[in-house]
Amino acid sequence: MTNTQNPKATTPTPKPTTPPEKSAAAVALGWLHTARFLTTAPQLHFLPELDVPEIAFVGRSNAGKSTCINTLTQQKQLAFASKKPGRTQHINLFSLGKQGVTDAVLTDLPGYGYAAVPKQDKIRWQQVMANYLVTRKNLKAIVLMCDPRHGMTELDEILLDVIRPRVAEGLKFLVILTKADKLTRSEGAKVLSITKLQSGGGEVRLFSATKRTGIEDVATLLWDWAHPDLPAPVATPVEPPAAQ
Ligand SMILES: Nc1nc2c(ncn2[C@@H]2O[C@H](COP(=O)(O)OP(=O)(O)OP(=O)(O)O)[C@@H](O)[C@H]2O)c(=O)[nH]1
Ligand SMILES: [Mg+2]
Predict the structure, then answer these.
(1) Which residues are CB-contacts of 230 (< 8 A; sequence separation ≥ 6)?
(2) Helices and strands (H and E) in the chain: how many
């Protein structure tokens, strides 16, 4: 008999669904979301020595380093981003890790190439950064942020030369082409393939904080690099429901 009084009573009970498998990207983003401020230093020798993997964000001023860190960590103001170039003037470290246990750090470095900076300061800063990139013992990966509308600039090439010996020794290297929302699809594809050639074997990804392009991919890559001894963060596949 059909129940005409209460149509809801005839609605079939939804089939029990299996919980979705937690993807590698979800694990990586959950890990990045634990980011918290660790310390800030005006110069290299003020940085604490650490024994966890460190991932440094470098690139021209205004390329989008701080915004990228905020996007990846899903926090609005962890790193200071600004329309005004030269916003980040210190080396800022952020701890990552669940339950307050730090298992990696992210480093936001001041950008280079900002025209308004006095020449002496520029030279001093380039030396600080080169020193950091060459001597920081726990440095595990470098993320070079690059505005694809300008491509790799001379200063980016100098940076590549500085880190090349360490990349040859196993330092991980990723070029993030930022602000991809400003490019058409074909412009994006073109700059991606050119940068792959220029990056000397490093990884290259298109990224947009506004359109949220490339976030999961970059997050997974960073998680993998910070946890080389762990298997990929995929939960055990869920068994399909038994046939009725
Ligand atoms: N359209 C667009 N704008 C972005 C994106 N990422 C960053 N921006 C903008 O670019 C400007 C610079 O961003 P920041 O993150 O402060 O750049 P930065 O590399 O940290 O700059 P410095 O600290 O000066 O080295 C800001 O106005 C951001 O809103 C993006 O993916 N798309
Ligand atoms: Mg910044």
Answers:
(1) none
(2) 6, 7
Amino acid residing at 207? F
Output the pLDDT for position 4: 46
The answer on pLDDT for 194 being more than 70 is yes
Pocket of ligand 1 (CB under 6 A): 59, 61-67, 81-83, 85-88, 110-111, 145, 178-179, 181-182, 208-210
Say what the pTM is: 0.84
Indicate the average pLDDT of the chain: 84
- 55 φ/ψ angles, rounded to the nearest 5 degrees: -120, 115
List 59's β-bridge partners, or say none. Answer: 145
Closest CA to 73 of 209, 233, 226: 209
Residue type, 21: E
Q: Cα of 234 to ligand 1 centre, how many Å?
A: 32
Task: Kindly tell me if the per-residue pLDDT of 111 is higher than 50.
Answer: yes
